[in-house]
């Protein structure tokens, strides 16, 4: 499947946001020394936008495509790991699904 120029621009824009806000994020409500990292709101919103872009464009597996994009751009999980499909599935179930 292919994306239009407008959608490709949006994809690159959202990936840049994910890249900027990737990795470890601690909510303000966590005390010092907390280990409970999560994804920033900016990361979640941008990733949800990418997922939705693929879904509405007819891609058969948006999770796989999102994982491929994250790996290509070297975007890491909230714990600094490679964003393989299992991590993107977790991201979808815990954060993205409620945004769509």
Description:
This protein has about 100 residues and is mostly helical. It has one domain (about 5-100). It is about 55% helix and about 0% strand. It has four helices and no strands. The chain has helices at about 5-20, 40-55, 60-70, 85-95. The longest helix has 16 residues, at about 5-20. The radius of gyration is 14 Å and the shape is globular. The two termini are about 20 Å apart. About 25% of the residues are buried. The mean pLDDT is about 90.
Total number of β-strand segments? Answer: 0
Report the principal-axis shape.
globular
Low-pLDDT runs of 5+ residues are none
**Rg, please?**
14 Å
Topology as a string of helices (H) and strands (E) = HHHH
Please indicate the count of domains.
Answer: 1
> How large is the count of helical segments?
4
What structural class results from the helix and strand content? mainly alpha
Mean pLDDT: 89
The fraction of residues in strands falls at under 5%
Major sheet size, sense and barrel closure: none
Note the gap between the termini.
21 Å
Q: Report helical residue fraction.
A: 55-70%
How does the SSE layout of this entry go?
Layout: H1 5-20, H2 41-56, H3 62-72, H4 85-96
Helix pairs in contact: 1-2, 2-3, 2-4, 3-4
What brief labels describe this structure?
100 residues, mainly alpha, 4 helices, 0% strand
């Amino acid at each position: 499947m292919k994306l239009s120029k407008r959608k490709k621009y949006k994809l690159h824009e959202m990936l840049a946001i994910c890249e900027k806000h990737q990795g470890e994020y601690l909510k303000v409500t966590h005390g010092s020394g907390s280990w409970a990292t999560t994804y920033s709101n900016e990361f979640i919103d941008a990733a949800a936008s990418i997922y939705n872009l693929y879904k509405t464009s007819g891609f058969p597996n948006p999770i796989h495509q999102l994982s491929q994009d994250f790996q290509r751009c070297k975007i890491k999980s909230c714990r600094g790991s490679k964003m393989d499909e299992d991590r993107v599935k977790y991201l979808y179930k815990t954060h993205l699904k409620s945004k769509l």
